[in-house]
Design goal:
Helix content is 38%, strand content 0%. The chain has 137 residues and is mainly α.
Length: 137
């Protein structure tokens, strides 16, 4: 299915992501790695990306031609949100599909100061599921 340039509503996004997650976990259960059905996945995360910082979203002073092209050719989720506006718990939630409070990350992790703070390595993440399915992550 070609969804290039699509704007998905919440239901369509959940249907697409659920199907992708099912395929991903199915592969990680030993179904194999190679094959023409296996999709390429490119995940791009930007930090502190308010709408006014992207030209495609109306930022008059933002000159972002590459992001603008991605918006035009990719999938846009205009009603997306995060569970916290703080980067470290937001990233932890994204990786682990858990609230920051569930994984013990509730504020910004200070590099070089809080090296012991982070996700428990035994916690399942979608990135590890992709790795276990044979993807380079």
């Amino acid at each position: 299915m070609n969804i290039q340039g699509a704007v998905l509503n919440r239901r369509e996004f959940l249907q697409q992501s659920t199907a992708a997650a099912g395929a991903m976990y199915g592969l990680s259960a030993g179904a194999g790695v190679a094959g023409p059905e296996r999709p390429n996945i490119v995940f791009i995360l930007t930090d502190d990306q308010a709408s006014w910082t992207i030209g495609a979203l109306g930022g008059p002073d933002a000159h972002t031609p590459n992001l603008d092209r991605l918006f035009a050719q990719g999938v846009t989720c205009p009603n997306a949100f995060v569970t916290t506006p703080v980067c470290s718990p937001s990233r932890a939630g994204l990786l682990a599909s858990r609230y920051g409070t569930e994984v013990g990350i509730t504020d910004w992790i200070k590099p070089g100061v809080e090296e012991e703070v982070g996700l428990d390595p035994s916690l399942p993440t979608w990135v590890r599921a992709l790795r276990d399915a044979g993807y380079a992550t």
